[in-house]
Amino acid sequence: MKDYVGLETSETTTLKAMADFSFHSALGNMDEAFRAIKLIKSEKVWESMARMCVRTQQLDVAAVCLGNMGNAMAAKAVRESKSIPQPEARLAILAVHLNMLNEAERLYKKSGRHDLLNKFYQASGQWEKAIEEAEHSDRMHLKTTYFNYARHAEAEEETKVAINCYTKSGTHHMQVPRMLFDSPQELEDYVIRSHDTEVCKWWAGYLESLGECDQALQFYEVAKDFPSLVRVLCSYGNFEKAAEIVEESGSRAAAYQLASRLRTEKEDVERAIHFYTKAQCYSPAIQLAKEHGLDNELMKLALLSSQEDMIEAAKHYEQSPDTQDKAIILYHKAGEMSRALELCFQLKQYDVLYQIADDLTESTSPVMIARVAEFLSGSGHYERAVLLLIKTKQIEEALDMCTTHNILITEDMAENMTLQKTGHESAEEAERRVKLLEKLGDCCAEQGSYHLATKKHTQAGNKTRAMKALLKSGDTEKIVFFAGVSRQRDVYVMAANYLQSLDWRKDPDIMKNIISFYTKGRALESLASFYDTCAQVEIDEYQDYEKAQGALNEALKCLNKAKSKNPTGIEARVKFLTERLQLVKRFADARKLYARDAEACVQECQALLNEPKVDTAIRTGDVYGLLIEHFAEAKHYREAYRLMEEMHQHMPSVNMAYYVNAQTIEAVHTALQIPLRKDRGDGSRATASDDESIGEGIDDRY
Question: First CA to last CA across the chain, in angstroms?
Answer without folding.
Answer: 111
